Amino acid sequence: MGIALGIDIGTSGTKTLAIDETGRILASASAEYPCDHPHAGWSEQDPELWWKATCETIKAVLQIAQIKPEDVTGIGLSGQMHGSVFLNQAGRVIRPALLWNDQRTVAECDEITRLAGGREALVGMVANPAVTGFTAPKILWLRNHEPENYQKLKQVLLPKDYVRYRLSGTYASEVSDASGTLLLDVKNRRWSHELVGKLGLDPSILPPCYESHEISSQVSPIGAAESGLAVGTPIVGGAGDQPASAVGNGIVRSGVVSATLGTSGVVFAHADSPDFGPAGVLQAGCHAVSGAWHTMGVVLSAGGGMQWLRNELGQAEVAEAAKRAVDPYELLTAEAAGAPAGCEGLIFLPYLTGERTPHFDPYARGGWIGLTVRHERRHLIRAVLEGVTFAMRDSLELVRASGVAVRQVRLSGGGARSKFWRTMQADIYGSTVSTINAAEGPAFGVALLAHVGTGVYATVPEACAATIREVEHIDADKTVEKAYDRSYGHYKAAYQALKPIFSEMAAD
After folding, report:
1. How far is CA 73 from CA 12, 70, 453, 460, in A?
2. pTM of model > 0.70
3. What is the mean pLDDT of residues 483-496?
4. Whole-number Å distance between alpha carbons of 457 and 500
5. What angle do CA 240, 245, 250 make, to 5 degrees?
């Protein structure tokens, strides 16, 4: 029986899992690493951290499940999207990678829009406007601010594709992750040589681009020696973490939308054609399903907002959780449950690292608004949960406005682990929400892609139908939903009121 590995190179850590042909998870392992912020709004990582974590977790999974390396029939790779790994002629990293939540490229986004002939022309070429998190502005930033490093540049890879390179010695990418570079002709599923030319870039810096289930490379002798895998093991194209998570959640047909609350938050909708509604409102891309596309809205600080709360204001819960051997988030959400829906007029803007959807505003800032002497710690915590979920609703409303009939929202990520937060999402989204039997997200999704690429399943939808089932439904409480509608209106108005001063505050 074939065994597939799914490897997800995330922002805070890497997860590897093994599944059999039925989708049963045989073992999983994770390894964490830090993220550097050299300046306000900057976010960088050393790609060597990803490689070390990949090798560590592969070896752990093989050992835990007693899997022989030769029994692994395929490997799928997923990872944080938009990150930029700059390599020199020798294939060595030139500088730390610029990540998806890095906000330094405002001027470069303006430059790309100008060189493309305007926003409408740019969206016509690559289906998206220039956004600070994307890859293309990072390449121009390197050219504009570190010319000595730009002169060394011979290859640009996305995070998961760097791990592929280390495993196989092969430069390759695939269409779903490449969609987030701002350099892919999304409608035609190939690099946009038109835009590459307008930006004055050498097209050779971009790797060959595959469909997500296609075999792109094989484990090399060097990759095998470092990772513990067998030489020649096939590696499929894989997918960016959000399309991969969508596969892992069974979002491979119209009408079912996913809401994933990880470090970032993503509302993801399947599309049967590259007709994305109003141009540039939602992020558009190729799906990890061959011949399909997707639209998605992105919240930059979703679970990241809760992580900030835990780290900066939740040390008491962290200490208590260690004593009780529980997750500190359980204690934080339990305290939040003691406050009423709407937090008695208190709202939280979760824009701790700027915001993408719907504002595309790198200068946006976070904060509690509406504090009174009545508010207690429980209100503060609940307001963070509500604010993050309101930000997710912003994207869901845009998906609905684009013409997608949202019949159901499938939840995943950290926001799906808490019954309290799951219920809150149903009430704020005004929709039935559900969870499924697989909670491993991107790693599970790309393991399924590996099974498709190696012939276990004929198509991605077939693989999902055979392995994924729903296990819980929660309907919205109409009374609570109405209360949240009022708070959501205040939430939206607060951003608009504060927007004029955010850029001034960012300059301080």
Report:
1. 28, 7, 10, 17
2. yes
3. 97
4. 53
5. 130
Scan for tokens 């007709």, then name that residue: 275
What rounded mean pLDDT belongs to the chain?
94
Sign of the Cα torsion 110, 241, 245, 190 reads positive
pLDDT in tens, 224-239: 999 999 999 999 999 9
Alpha-helical runs (H) found in 183-268: 193-198, 221-227, 241-248
The yes-or-no answer on residue 202 being catalytic is: no
SS (H, E, C) 4-39: EEEEEECCCEEEEEEECCCCCEEEEEEEECCCECCC
The torsion defined by the Cα of 118, 124, 126 and 129, in degrees rounded to 10, comes to 40
Which of 14, 147, 4 is closest to 62 using CA atoms? 4
CA angle 270, 274, 275 (to 5 degrees): 95
Q: Is the separation of the CB atoms in 44 and 420 below 8 Å?
A: no
Q: Which residue has the tokens 């999304």?
A: 186
The alpha carbon of 171 is separated from its chain's Cα centroid by a whole number of angstroms, namely 22
Q: What is the pLDDT of residue 407?
A: 84
Residue 258's nearest CA partner among 462, 99, 401, 470 is: 470
Helix, strand, coil percentages (3-state) for the chain, rounded to 5, are 45, 20, 35
Domain with CATH 3.30.420.40 in the chain: 3-249+438-470, 303-406+477-506
The closest of 307, 221, 291 to 252, measured between CA atoms, is 291
Question: Which CATH superfamily is 303-406+477-506 part of?
Answer: ATPase, nucleotide binding domain (3.30.420.40)
Q: Which of 241, 361, 394, 427 is catalytic?
A: 241
Q: The domain 3-249+438-470: what is its CATH number?
A: 3.30.420.40
Q: Which residue in this structure is represented by tokens 């061959």? A: 290
* Two structure tokens written together for 218: 């094989």
Contact between 438 and 23 under an 8 Å Cβ cutoff? The reply is: yes
pLDDT for the residue 280: 66
Residue 506: the pLDDT is 75
Q: What is the pLDDT of residue 441?
A: 82
Nearest to 225 by CA among 172, 171, 170, 168: 168
Give residues with Cβ within 8 angstroms of 3, minimum separation 6.
18, 19, 20, 26, 67, 71, 72, 73
**Residue 412, amino acid:** S
Q: How confident is the model at residue 40 (pLDDT cuts 50, 70, 90)?
A: confident
Reported as type and span, the H/E element at residue 238 is none
